[in-house]
UniProtKB/TrEMBL annotation:
Residues 369-378 have a biased composition (Basic and acidic residues). Residues 352-384 are annotated as: Disordered. NCBIfam families: portal_HK97 (TIGR01537). This is Phage portal protein, HK97 family. It comes from the Bacteria. InterPro entries: Phage/GTA_portal, Portal_HK97. The lineage of its organism: Bacteria, Bacillati, Bacillota, Bacilli, Bacillales. It holds the Pfam family Phage_portal.
Length: 384
């Protein structure tokens, strides 16, 4: 429940959250879904997350919490990746705000989404979360719970992507099992020996033994004698359409997770001129909506209205995924400096280099004199 100094300690047993669980066994049995969830969760966890004010990073207890250790058992990377993994499997990721004695957020603890259910309070119409604990049922106000989700129909609980993909997963598993059964039940022989005459049982065994020994001792080379025909047995497991099914599975998984199919290993029909276009496609069409949801959830529930009015906001830096190769970055930085868009020290910070004296000024083209000098009479072009 919501309230100053509310104690959630009875929800825990032995220092470990009883709700922190695995979000679906399908990840361990389907490589395509595992790849998609890994790609999304790693991408979100790799994005730098900072608290800003007027475009400049600021440090507070809450920003330090998110940037380093949201709880005593997890780093920021593990926290975001696990939350995103839950969102991409069950459709919902939950993290409970844990308060200290002065009602300051001290930690964020991830809950098992299978034990959390959004509900609407009848009189106030406020959103609460019904949590099944080890000692009963608890209710948490929506401002005390970080909740990221997939698309939904009621505005409160996301739809599970695995539920959407259930038919695809079942079909894929059946085709794979059929393929394995076919391989196990197939004839193990590799050649057919045709003799011109009928041979006794003992003679057949002798010929077969000689054939095997000669094949092994001569590196797989066979000599076809007169009266003997050697036909290799061809095995074509493509009849099971395994590869076609895998392509269909990749396409459907990519569609459900709203990500380019090439991110799951599909290269057929993919035509991109550069790695920048590949990254841009993934960032614009896949990550931006997810990033925006995280930012708004953190701004709303980890910042007070006064802090937001002062201009504080959380922001993921997606530019880290769009840096391109050395040549592309160099051209971009060069044009940015010459057009007065970037300061040299800003670029040095992006490249993780220390600032230099004079690098905090904006420059213009031609003689690249500081903009301030051009505004002063008698200096630069304006003084001519």
């Amino acid at each position: 429940m919501k309230g100053e100094g509310y104690n959630f300690s009875k929800w825990f047993r032995g220092g470990k959250s009883i709700f922190f669980g695995s979000a679906g066994g399908t990840l361990a049995t389907n490589e395509t879904i595992f790849s998609a969830v890994t790609r999304l969760s790693n991408a979100m966890a790799s994005l730098p997350l900072k608290l800003y004010k007027d475009f400049s990073p600021v440090n507070t207890s809450v920003s330090d919490l998110l940037a380093n250790a949201p709880n005593r058992n997890m780093s920021s990377f593990d926290f975001i990746r696990t939350l995103e993994t839950h969102r991409d499997t069950s459709g919902n990721g939950y993290a409970l705000k844990m308060y200290g004695s002065n009602y300051q957020v001290e930690s964020l603890v991830i809950l098992d989404p299978a034990r959390v259910q959004p509900v609407i309070e009848k009189d106030t119409l406020d959103l609460w979360y019904e949590v099944e604990g080890d000692k009963g049922r608890y209710y948490v106000h929506n401002m005390d719970m970080i909740h990221v989700k997939h698309i939904h129909t009621n505005g409160y609980k996301g739809i599970s992507p695995l539920a959407v993909l259930r038919n695809t997963i079942d079909f894929d598993e059946k085709v794979r099992q059929f393929s394995l059964d076919t391989m196990d039940g197939a004839v193990k022989a590799s050649f057919i020996l045709k003799m011109a005459t009928h041979l006794s049982t003992d003679k057949k065994k002798e010929v077969l033994a000689n054939f095997k020994n000669f094949y092994q001792e001569n590196g797989g080379v066979l000599i076809q004698e007169s009266g003997v025909e050697i036909d290799p047995i061809k095995r074509d497991f493509m009849d099971t359409k395994v590869f076609e099914v895998e392509k269909i599975t990749r396409s459907r998984v990519a569609t459900v997770y709203n990500m380019p199919v090439h991110m799951l290993g599909e290269t057929e029909g993919v035509n991109y001129n550069s790695m920048e276009q590949l990254s841009l496609d993934f960032v614009q069409n896949t990550l931006i909506p997810i990033v925006r949801q995280y930012e708004q959830e953190l701004n709303r529930k980890l910042l007070t209205p006064k802090e937001r009015l002062r201009g504080l906001y959380f922001k993921f830096n997606v530019n880290a995924l769009l840096r391109g190769d050395m040549k592309t970055r160099g051209d971009f930085y060069f044009k940015g400096v010459r057009s007065g868009l970037f300061k040299p020290n800003e670029i040095r910070a992006w490249e993780e280099l220390p600032p230099e004296k004079g690098g905090d000024s904006l420059y213009m083209s031609r003689d690249l004199s500081p903009i301030e000098e051009r505004k002063e009479p008698g200096k630069g072009v304006s003084g001519r």
